[in-house]
Design a protein that fits this description.
heterodimer; A: 154 residues; alpha+beta; 5-stranded mixed β-sheet; 4-stranded mixed β-sheet; B: mainly alpha; 18 helices; 65% helix
Chain lengths: 154, 462
């Protein structure tokens, strides 16, 4: 074989190996479709039900569209129960959720810049339109503790 | 359970992961491009020792003039003063205070892009260099011959700048983002700026203004790294033009340059990975540190710091393994020589990572910089220019554009890095066949970085 052929062969081999590697390390399928959405959310919920898990329920594909279940997130001792929860929606959706907290604070949705006061006995209720895409932090404004990660898909 | 906020104290919106189809296309293009890079390579170096020629008069006259130098230096000093004033007197809300967005977004992300196009413009605006030069001028006027400097130990090279870079990013994304009710406050940034300014001015006094500016002052050194890609350079006070990218070829001759470019890639990688790929191991480490009895803030910072260092280490390891491989090619120079001879090929990768990770942040945050942060820098309700009520329009660029820019940047960086590496190999191995053989290794290195970049962009935040 002349050097040129060897070179081409070696280059081809590198390409094949790299392609194989890329396919192996490709990130999980959790981000490639809407159909997985409810499962992801269920997993997130079941993972976090160690103690008094949040009663978050799938929101985007409820069995009865006219009566969707509004997810409820709990904050105990100033920390989100089960860690930061994930909430997914599509652009243009109305995002609805409730935050219950045993401490007084203000729930702030970054990016969309909506805030509601929260405290013992007065849950914060949100209902706003997801006008643009991205990943947004929802936090307790005064203590700067993140409680929910909102992902708005196109 | 420790909870973490999103990467920056400033960030209100994070990017969506790139979709699988785009990931596949990006990876495919990278592979095809790499294949052509190997198969159809040129046989004589094209970027090494490219001669410079004087730049056009309308550019060189202002660039060479001392009035422009003094004016831009003055602007730099003024902006430094505003950062300090807003940081100390302004609101503690990170996203409503001028100083944070200005330092971490406008300057830190803006100057690399400016530098690639126009050369090392930061040098002209550096407030520390301006103060140092003014002081030197004054001292020379009042008491000629009294200003003496110590010889800068050349073996330290750019190491102080590499350490400064890591410390800066540590302050931004680790010290600032600790979850447990601590966010990077403008006041802390102002204090850190004062400490850094004193340190820089002392070092300039000890080693000389220009010496420290080109070795230890990390803003200038870091931006200067990107400026080496530019067609413009200043030599002996004169503005020159040369072939694009050719300035990178002698950039890494100074010790510590490899450390700097590896750190630059490492810190960006860490920032991209901490929310996705590294989130679980980082949290695990933080909990283990917490188990040792440390406070939540301490354990969060410790866990993050450990992984920041690990990430920089992995970036270094990928590169050094490639260099090690190259030493196996016939007539190869020793490892220690090769190690620094290919360091400059990582500059395009560092730039690509920067663009891929911060493009949308920059576009959105600059809207804040030039609207409400400009008119109301302290966040106290003032409205200096009538733009205080405008905000960030998050619909300005859609997710598709962000994805294309991200993947495009990675591909462009990959190609540029391969071009520079091939060129350098031709200089080291006059036999082009040996040179090409050595480049299988650099191709593997660049493939690692590019696929790592794609992987980080496509990793769904859990």
């Amino acid at each position: 074989m002349n050097p040129k052929t060897t070179r081409m062969l070696a280059a081809g081999a590198v390409v094949v190996v790299a392609l194989a590697l890329l396919l192996i390390v490709r990130p999980g399928d959790s981000d490639n479709g809407n159909s997985d959405e409810s499962t992801t959310q269920e997993q997130a919920t079941s993972k976090s039900t160690g103690n008094t898990g949040p009663t978050s329920a799938p929101q985007s594909k409820p069995p009865q569209p006219e009566k969707p279940v509004v997810p409820v997130y709990r904050v105990v001792d100033g920390q989100p129960v089960g860690g930061v929860q994930k909430l997914e929606a599509n652009e243009g959706d109305n995002i609805r959720f409730v935050v219950k907290s045993d401490v007084d604070d203000e729930v702030h949705v970054h990016g969309f810049d909506v805030s509601e006061p929260v405290g013992p006995g007065k849950p914060a209720r949100f209902d706003f339109k997801a006008g643009f895409t991205g990943v947004f932090e929802i936090e307790l404004e005064n203590s700067a503790v993140p409680i929910i990660e909102l992902q708005v898909n196109p | 359970m420790i909870s973490l906020p999103l990467a920056h104290a400033l960030v209100s919106r994070g990017d969506l992961p790139i979709p699988v189809w785009l990931f596949a296309w990006g990876a495919g293009v990278v592979l095809v491009v790499s294949f052509f890079a190997l198969a159809s390579a040129w046989r004589k170096p094209r970027f090494e020792d490219a001669p410079g020629r004087p730049a056009a008069t309308w550019l060189s006259v202002p660039a060479n003039s001392s009035a422009v130098q003094s004016l831009s230096g003055l602007i730099g000093v003024l902006l430094l003063a505003i950062v300090l004033y807003a940081g100390i007197e302004g609101t503690e809300a990170a996203d409503r205070n001028f100083s944070l967005t200005f330092v971490f977004v406008t300057v830190w992300l803006g100057f690399p892009v400016l530098s690639v196009v126009f050369g090392n413009v930061f040098t002209a605006f550096s407030p520390w260099r301006a103060i140092g030069r003014a002081y030197g001028w004054l001292a020379h006027r009042l008491a000629p011959g009294t200003v003496r400097h110590l010889e800068y130990p050349e073996k330290f090279g750019r190491w102080p700048a590499a350490v400064g870079l890591v410390a800066f990013v540590w302050l931004e994304i680790i010290y600032g983002a600790t979850g447990a009710a601590v966010v990077l406050s403008p006041e802390i940034v102002a204090k850190a700026t004062i400490i850094y300014s004193v340190y820089t001015l002392v070092m300039m006094g000890v080693f000389g203004v220009e010496k420290w500016n080109s070795r230890g002052e990390f803003f200038s050194v870091y931006f200067g790294m990107f400026a080496s890609m530019s067609t413009f350079r200043k030599r002996e006070g004169k503005l020159e033009r040369r072939r694009w990218l050719s300035g990178t070829t002698d950039w890494a001759n100074v010790p510590g340059s490899l450390a700097l470019v590896v750190s630059a890639i490492g810190v960006t990688t860490f920032d991209g990975a901490q929310e996705g790929a590294l989130k679980t191991p980082i949290e695990w480490t933080q909990e283990r540190v917490g188990d040792l009895g440390f406070a939540a803030t301490v354990s969060v910072r410790a866990g993050d710091t450990i992984f920041l260092l690990i990430t920089i280490g992995i970036v270094a390891l990928i590169y050094l393994l490639g260099v090690k491989g190259m030493t196996r090619v016939d007539a190869a120079p020793p490892f220690k020589v090769l190690r620094s001879r290919f360091a400059h090929t990582l500059i395009p990768i560092a730039l690509a990572y920067l663009v891929a990770h911060y493009f949308s942040l920059f576009v959105f945050q600059e809207q804040a910089q030039f609207t409400f942060l400009l008119s109301d820098p302290l966040g106290d309700g003032s409205n200096l220019f009538g733009t205080a009520t405008s905000g960030i329009d998050y619909t300005l660029i859609g997710p598709e554009l962000v994805w294309y820019v991200q993947v495009g940047a990675l591909i462009a960086g990959h190609v540029t890095a391969l071009v520079l590496a091939h060129d350098r190999a031709l200089l080291i191995w006059p036999d082009y066949r040996l040179a090409t053989r050595s480049q299988y290794w650099m191709l593997a290195v660049m493939l690692c970085f590019t696929s790592l970049g794609l992987f980080l962009l496509s990793f769904a935040n859990q």
